Amino acid sequence: MRRRTPAGIAVAAVVLLAGCTGTEGAARDTPAADGMIGFLDYGGFGGGAEPQANYNPYLDATRLGATDYLFERLMVFNTYACTPQPWLATEYSWTDPRTLVFKIRQGVKWNDGQPFTAKDVAFTYNLIKQHEALDTQGLGRYLESVDGTADTVTMTFKSAGASVFTLAVNVPIVPEHIWSKVPDPVTFVNADKPVGTGPFTVKAMNRQQLTIARNPGYWQAGKVKVQEIRFHSADSQGAVEQLKLSRGAYDTNAMFVPDIKKAYVDRDPKNHHYWYPPGGTISFYMNLTKPPFDDLAFRKALTTAFDHRTIIDKAQLGYVKQASQTGLVIPGQEAWLPQGIQDQGRIGYDQAAADAALTAAGYRKDAEGRRLGKDGKPLAFTFKTPSGWTDWLSAAQIIVKNLKALGFDVDLETPTPETYDRDRAIGSYDALFGVHGGSCNMFRNFSEPLGADQGAPIGKKALSNFVRWNDKETERLLEELRVATDESAQKQAVAGLSKIMTDRVPVIPIWYGAKWFQYKTSKAVGWPNEQDPYAAPGDNLLIVTRLKPA
């Protein structure tokens, strides 16, 4: 059975937490008297089908997962609640909308003993500006200059830079004294004793296992209680990996398991746990250039038409949560909710209400129970979902059933994923599923699905506004959010955009994609979970500095 990886899963989590088991060396498997954890077994170490030693943090396709523990960033986000944590920078401030100033942490050393300075930070940002292939987030097109003096780094943007703050703080910092001597940083694999400021260093690597060891000179070494982390080769999260997970071979992993309670938790209820926090939003997308989808009253009527509970329980195996109509990921982003939103923007399934609202909007039924358009003709349209994506197909079948129960003539089409992506981009569809949001960049969360500059005329490829939403008030609010450096101003703009989502219904959110995360507490405790969501799966540095011996 083929499943699509749900939206919103951080790439780092997939690279970090997918794998196998094994042991090596003399590290201890039980907590020692000194309060340390001998080693933890994580999942796959990334690097593609034929992994090689590669610790260049900018080569996303082939770098190894251990890179996340070698190099650090100016700020680290708790991507569940979207709160930035001071890291290599202790604080930041906007002196004007184009100028962002960081105070750099003092006393930090590279793992070769050299001091870390503001010059390293400036060098790093200028490096990715100079080499576009290293600029994995596309930050360079926004940056005008980066300067480092004493304990301060100043970023100057070409225009108001608040909308790219999450990109600006998320660049792995590399040492100038090493990388300035590299002939070609675009092909540099950094395989020989990579130098970083992070909590671990590379100990050993072969085709089956990658081991990283605690860095005793780390600037917050007192918070790191893990002596080693061992990553393992994996078989693409197949049956073998699920079997190893169920047997407790991993201390943590991130994979889809059909019945996680039976396959994993029930094997050791005391120590085997999972937490699947929400990621990106999967929504019912309508082609807004076509009737009846161009009618607000029609769209609002459909907000109660879909049986979320059945979709969640049957199509998504109970692993996910119903999405908020606001476009925000709840509960993590509830601090951004506008006041007065009932039930955090979740709209319940009520077929009778949908039927009545459709009739009131002018879409009555005929004597045969067929839903008619305003022209008096039966309403017929198609719903598309990619072939092979079994969870989406199951959800689509429920959606179609719900629509047929309201009198619509709906055909379910299952094109190849490639055809699906093309048809969605050029607007060759009536209705389908779309994914949006889920990041900590609020501007992108709303501009990508709703921004006019992300759309295109029918027949031309849209970047991400596949429904072709074009609204002056939306554009005004997006511009306010783009330039706002003050959080209260940002929240005011987000509140306005959330209200547009609820009042104008450009899309209809259905469920949140899950971030898979399994963890074991026989050796280590302090993993993030629903009761203590101090981090999301994949927030690796936040997690490893909170783990303690069981």
What does this structure look like?
With 550 residues, this protein is α+β, with helices and mostly antiparallel strands. Helix content is 25%, strand content 18%. It has 16 helices and 20 strands. The chain has helices at residues 11-16, 67-70, 118-130, 165-168, 176-179, 239-246, 260-263, 296-302, 308-315, 351-360, 390-405, 417-426, 442-450, 472-483, 487-504, 540-544, and strands spanning 40-41, 75-78, 83-86, 89-96, 99-104, 143-149, 152-157, 200-205, 209-214, 228-232, 252-253, 272-274, 278-286, 380-384, 409-413, 431-436, 508-514, 518-520, 524-525, 548-549. The chain has a 5-stranded mixed β-sheet, with helices on both faces. Pfam families: SBP_bac_5 (PF00496). Residues 1-26 form the signal peptide. Keywords: Signal. InterPro entries: Peptide/Ni-bd, SBP_5, SBP_5_dom. It comes from Nonomuraea purpurea.
